[in-house]
Amino acid sequence: MKGIFITFEGIEGCGKSTQAKLLADYLQKTGKEVLFTREPGGPKISEEIREILLNNANAEMIPRTEVLLYMASRSQHTSEWIIPALKNGKIVISDRYYDSTIAYQGAARKIERNIIDMLTTFATFGLKPDITFLVDLPAEIGLARIEQKDADRLERESLDFHKKVRAGFLKIAEQEKDRYIVLNGAKTVNEIHREIIKKIDEKIRK
Description:
8 helices; alpha/beta; globular; 5-stranded parallel beta sheet; Rossmann fold; 206 residues
């Protein structure tokens, strides 16, 4: 594959979605072909699964169902959008990918890591991101940024749940230092954006 696959991860309210979009806009302005996408979501089938996953009416969903739905969405997303874009030499920027499953369904929901890894390899066809930006922020601050009236099923989880998610992301970052770049989410939007540009310019602008 000739393209570059960049993912953004982090807890709710950390600002990763803003940073992912800013990076996509920046790269497009420099003349790069960019596919900007998100998880769960992307193509039609994946977006329909997203509606099920985040719907507050589905509070009875058990962790096993949740992890399988995320994997189903990801498999369609990877096959229909991400792999073809990379083969065509595009830069793919995804707001979340499989690390979110390791953090949310693994660290917080206590699904066994070996099961998640097996399902991930199957769902992603073995595809791994080239670069992952983790916008790190304490769970208390991230949740305080979210309008509770508009919060989805995952955003409404307890503070303890979101602390476990953050710990899960930091553990992945420690284990995969070659891929992960940890950013301080407490900085301003512009400060974080400039740091991201500095980190990837050498790799992207050759």
